[in-house]
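User: Assemble these into one structure.

Assistant: Restating your components, then the assembled model:
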Amino acid sequence: MTTAVAHYFGSSIGRKQLIAVTGLALCGFLVSHLTGNFLLLMGADAFNLYAHKLASLGALLYLAELGLLVALLIHLGLALKITLENKAARPVKYLGKKNTGRGTTIMSASMPYTGLVLLAFIITHLMGIKYGSYYTTIVDGVEMRDVYRTTIEHFSSIGYTVWYSFAMICAAFHTAHGFSSAFQSLGLNHGRYFGKVKLLGILYAIFIGAGFASLAIWSHLKGV
Amino acid sequence: MSNGNMTLNLKIWRQVNAKTEGKFVDYKVDHVSEDMSFLEMIDVLNEQLVRKGDDAIAFDHDCREGICGMCSMMINGKAHGGFKGTTTCQVHMRLFKDGDTVVVEPWRSRAFPLIKDLTVDRSAFDTIQQAGGYITANTGNAQDANAILIPKPIADEAMDAAACIGCGACVASCPNGSGMLFMSAKVSQLALLPQGKAEAEKRVLEMVQTHDELGFGNCSNHAECEATCPKDISIEHIARTNREYIAAAIKHHEKDRSGGGA
């Protein structure tokens, strides 16, 4: 490996481009996840059949899950590292640093915090649904997991529904900066189109945040 | 007109040198004219201090017309006061009101060690510049301006980047203490022009490495630098640097020149 490539992965730009690529991959996953979740509205059978088809992919599913895990770990690990480095880059704090209002936003400033909330959320979410209570049902003569029942049962708790909705607000904040920020990191910023990228990022964030949270609230109302 | 009628309460960072502890000291300045620049107001305060036998407040300044990039200070938590496209020396006292309390601090960055009071050592910028902000061709005498034709939009963009005065406001205002805007202005300025293109790959690799080694933070696209830059340098230059960097990391390799060339 040439030194240039080796330096790339250790450099501030190389690392932020890796954070950008893995972040965009995770953004893509969220879209497919939310699309699947909308099947909740079609009833138990449709949702269970979809989950069953996914689970039947076998090795392919494990490969996808491994890909997501690797993307998440790279994203998280590098983000933690650069956040700590950034704190160290200003050893003496300002008395009263103020933003101009033309640059830093609440979304960009809270990235490390919303990111950590999402990490905690992913753990509770996997424990609650994927590794949560296991029921079986029969659809079209095939026995499969009744993950619909697990979901409705899970969201019958008001505490979990609130936590889930809070995490989705964090996801919206995180992606509202992260989406367009990834394009900038990859060098895709030009006056001609960057305004549209920013707008797309904000629409994406609203779609993801409102989409997931509204389905959680719907599940809660269904379960109580 | 209320010339010479303003009284300002200042809270200024005083620190004898990098080895001693610093602290904020409160000062009151009377008879401030709204036509004074911010630096002239500090000059008035310094005259009062010297007359009393106190040590004058050290601050960087040179041209006082917004082009040298020396006057580096945080005014009320914002670099150069946070007025769009304005250096501290061009901030006039008419922007303040009688009785205002104004907090003045030096740039805070690990890469810019404090020298005294409001003065910091910004030679880290010179080190970045020396890492690649030049071309190695012998240029000889200046040739005819039209000998190398450069399309106007490209010349304009290179000129926008070249407007950087290296004041350090980008680093000071960046929540991460990153020097990317400065570095990217230098990368862009040269990468856009034919004279600079030949060494563009080597330049960006070495300048980024030097930037990182000097203790600047990492850019995370807040764009606070662009907002406080007195020369309105755009973060589009950072995007160009990001593009140049990834391309260079893939393509660049040093050829062994030790055998000499034909």
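Strands of chain A lie at 136-139, 142-145.
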